[in-house]
Design goal:
The protein is α/β, with parallel strands linked by helices. The longest helix is centred in the last third of the chain and has 12 residues.
Length: 181
């Protein structure tokens, strides 16, 4: 069963949850062969009730100790571009934020990733990192107003694999993006 995993980390991003659960988004996901939508909704006000309709089955939860299994099962990951996403010292002092899966973890697993920018919560370096990963062809990047269009037009085969196991290269890249170098 083809599935999509959506994560907002430890924050709330109700706009993303509402957008991905909209009839237009569900229709696009169904037309692309996805049958299941798993939502990690964090602290948001929205927590859609589980449902199985003609189109896409929807499950939602707030938090788990680990998102590794959800990431493993996903055929597509949609994530916010916030603190837990990048799981780096500059973005998340002291390590992982609430056990949330990270962008790097998703990319290293070879999962296609759509990064949705939460313009209400963004720090410049997170925005720059998301845009750079998009420019480098590793992720698709959009905001809530363009998510349905992005899902409709995405060509996941065009995404470039992220080079695994090179934290020093990523650290240099991150230093450049945030202006330390």
């Amino acid at each position: 069963m083809k599935s999509v995993f959506v994560t907002v980390g430890t924050t709330s991003f109700d706009d993303l949850i509402a957008t991905v659960c909209s009839p237009a988004a569900l229709q696009v996901l169904q037309s692309r062969g996805y049958q299941k939508l798993v939502l990690q909704v964090g602290r948001g006000e929205l927590k859609p009730a589980p449902r199985s309709s003609q189109s896409v089955a929807v499950e939602a939860f707030r938090f788990k100790d680990s998102l590794a299994e959800d990431l493993r099962r996903a055929d597509l990951v949609i994530s916010h571009a916030g603190r837990a996403l990048f799981d780096c010292p500059a973005c998340s002092p002291g390590g992982r934020s609430g056990g949330a899966g990270s962008c790097l973890e998703t990319l290293e697993k070879g999962k296609p990733l759509v990064v949705v920018i939460n313009e209400k919560l963004m720090n410049n370096h997170q925005l720059e990192l998301a845009k750079q990963l998009h420019r480098d062809g590793h992720v698709l990047c959009c905001n809530c107003s363009t998510l349905v269009e992005t899902l409709q037009s995405m060509d996941l085969s065009a995404l470039k694999p992220f080079p695994p196991g090179q934290p020093e290269k990523f650290a240099l890249f991150l230093d450049k993006v945030v202006g330390f170098q």
